[in-house]
Amino acid sequence: MRITELRKKVGGMEIHVPDLRIESGRIHGLVGPNGCGKTTLLKMIMGIIRPDSGTVDFEGLRPTDITMTSQRPYLMRASVYDNIVYPLKIRGAGIDQGEIDDLLERTGLLPHKHQYAGSLSSGERQKLSFLRAIVFHPSMILVDETFSNLDPDSEALFREMILERREKDGAAWLIVSHQWDRMNSIFDEIHHMEKGRIVKRDGNLNGAIK
User: Fold this and answer.
1) What is the pLDDT of residue 1?
2) What's the pTM?
3) How many whole angstroms separate alpha carbon 115 and alpha carbon 82?
């Protein structure tokens, strides 16, 4: 995906991204203070917010190839299982019950498989949101502070799962995180954002170009 001259006026601030490339098989971090435009940028990429000008070139990716998780995930008023298989159903994809159970077990959600999703704790909701995002093997995953309510062990597990998925699917990841000091071990690149601008890029952090 390539962003070119993207602009959006938000209150008294203008978000301006002259050039940003998110490559397949790489994990990008997007960091910066609250209110600098990180979430708005992700929503423009997803088409939730319309930019004032500029382009987002998905280079052949379809909308169904892309997904996004948020800090306050929206869950269907249904069971944990129904939530996790929903992306598969709307895409007409097959449901591998073994894979579903494995994902639920790894994140401690298997005992809650048939539980009403709205009754989960905030951390459990984040886990379900993450699983729902990766279950259909998307080509691009945007993560907006999804790990903020996780305990350290769960956060470590999600880092492990992201690396596994990157190797297995070759997906592109763009992760917004305030805990970037703990997440940067998995980032291939970090983009620092301030007042609507990406002011610095740290590239090839892990020494591996995919």
Assistant:
1) 95
2) 0.91
3) 10
